[in-house]
Amino acid sequence: MNKAQLHLQNLYILMKEAGSLAELARRSGYENSASLSQIKRRLEQQNTDENGRGIRASLLAKLESGMGKRKGWMDREHDPEAEKRQKKAAAGRAAEKAVAAASAPVFEGKRAVTVVRNTSETRISVSLNLDGSGVGRFDTGVPFLDHMLDQIARHGLIDLDIACQGDLHIDDHHTVEDIGITLGQALKQALGDKAGIRRYGHAYVPLDEALSRVVIDLSGRPGLVYNLEFTRAMIGRFDVDLFSEFFQGLVNHSMMTLHIDNLRGKNAHHQAETMFKAFGRALRMAVEYDECMAGIMPSTKGTLTA
């Protein structure tokens, strides 16, 4: 490839990045696009000339500077698709490092754990302490979910730190479901063999016209009964169908039996908030140590993990 061919190829790349020849000329400091158009035609004429000299250095520098390229960029061959893949891979590695940094143990205690779950769709870190004070820190990229997770922490007196980088450019589905899965895994680890806990928990929580009931059995058997008919499909930008996906993932991986019933409600925000507050309160009761059951397994079969 001669200089003219190389410069023409890279000029086409810059035109595509800028959106048009006129915009490339503007960014590169040309008073009008005609000058750059003449350069383009000259390169096209030299395309088959083995002695084509291409663009002189001063003009190359203007193009490189205008488009934020390093000096000498115009004199090297480029594969835009390969460079995109490299940038995407680099961004993925940076995201994994960020999640790994966040995955260092955040809380201390006998029932404090950190779980990291990375897939091609989401990268998640969940830290929790079942014997906490209700501290919550959330960065999921889904603001309404952050608000609901904060209800679990606050009303469950569970310290909870959740960070997620998910494919939100598609939708919220993978992020919400996978956070439920990872939180379930963390709960299962933190509970250990479950000796001495109450095992069962329940709560009724009202919010104005709405009322929800949640009943939990840390049974070692996954089961979800979910009775909640939202009065609208979206709360802001959040799809309410995703709440059932969240709880299904949590139940499957925490190995709990969970009954959720919204008994009444007209405001969808209130319906969701009563559900999460009741879940936090019921979970708080279920994971508490029972002084009368100190060291005793709350099951006649002698185990809640098999």
Automatic annotation (TrEMBL):
GO molecular function: imidazoleglycerol-phosphate dehydratase activity
Cellular component annotations (GO), alphabetically ordered: cytoplasm
Family matches, as Pfam families: IGPD (PF00475)
Main location: cytoplasm
GO BP annotations listed: L-histidine biosynthetic process
Catalytic activity of the protein: D-erythro-1-(imidazol-4-yl)glycerol 3-phosphate = 3-(imidazol-4-yl)-2-oxopropyl phosphate + H2O
InterPro entries xrefs: IGPD_sf (IPR038494), ImidazoleglycerolP_deHydtase (IPR000807), ImidazoleglycerP_deHydtase_CS (IPR020565), Ribosomal_Su5_D2-typ_SF (IPR020568)
Pathway(s) served: Amino-acid biosynthesis; L-histidine biosynthesis; L-histidine from 5-phospho-alpha-D-ribose 1-diphosphate: step 6/9
Subcellular locations according to the entry: Cytoplasm
SUPFAM superfamilies: Ribosomal protein S5 domain 2-like
Keywords: Amino-acid biosynthesis, Cytoplasm, Histidine biosynthesis, Lyase
Family: Belongs to the imidazoleglycerol-phosphate dehydratase family.
Alphabetical list of NCBIfam families matching this protein: PRK00951.1-1 (NF002106), PRK00951.1-5 (NF002109), PRK00951.2-1 (NF002111), PRK00951.2-4 (NF002114)
PANTHER family: IMIDAZOLEGLYCEROL-PHOSPHATE DEHYDRATASE, IMIDAZOLEGLYCEROL-PHOSPHATE DEHYDRATASE HIS7
Protein name, per record: Imidazoleglycerol-phosphate dehydratase
Originating species: Neisseria animaloris
